[in-house]
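User: Predict structure, ligand glutathione.
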Amino acid sequence: MIKLLTFPPAFGLFAASPFCVKAAYLLNMSGQKWEREDMLDPRKMPYGKLPAIRAGERLIADSDRIQTYLESEGADFNKGLSDLDKANARAFIRMSEEHLYFHLVLDRWADDAIWPKVRDVYFSQVPPGLRHVIAAGVRRKTLSGLHSQGLGRLSQEERLARIEPDIDAITMRLRHSHFLFGDQPTAADASVAPMLAAATASPGVTLMGRMIEGNEVLMAYIARVDESCG
Ligand SMILES: N[C@@H](CCC(=O)N[C@@H](CS)C(=O)NCC(=O)O)C(=O)O
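Assistant: Predicted complex:
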């Protein structure tokens, strides 16, 4: 049986990480038998990140590579999509994982009011005496990465102006069908819905969370994808 190495449940979700939720959705969609194995420290993983899966002797890290593996075993996550839809789906996945994701990280790690709640969940296994020091070091590194990436240099207003068109694009597609590319969930839903869900589940009032919570189309979509793929 496949083992999904994932962060543990947090904020009322399967995991705090949208990539771990994506991997769980893909596994469910593939029809493979699997079980979760929770861990909080991913440093020994191939990329130092989660998710990863153990399939027989193989350790496969990164949700994209997990998808490729499941496809090599016969799964079709884009069944019925035209080549044009597949091309558009790819862009939606990248928008979710390479743009919205970094706003999610900023919302959780950069805001001084929200950070203590996130810290106590992420670093719950670190003994209380050391927790604040270790967490502060990881936080510094994370925020420095976001500064280098660029989004960490923007004001709240500037960030909002970047998030809004992405949210509008997702909403626009969902006005036409139950899922992003038709009436069945596909790979794009496995990526986008967990990102939106993560934003709404983050503790405190966050930029992206507020925007999504006020959007009925997206809230219904998050629930629909979880019902179908969770
Ligand atoms: N491209 C990777 C991204 C995975 C990722 O960024 N995982 C984060 C959690 S959301 C992580 O493990 N971070 C731990 C760290 O950077 O130390 C995927 O698709 O699986």
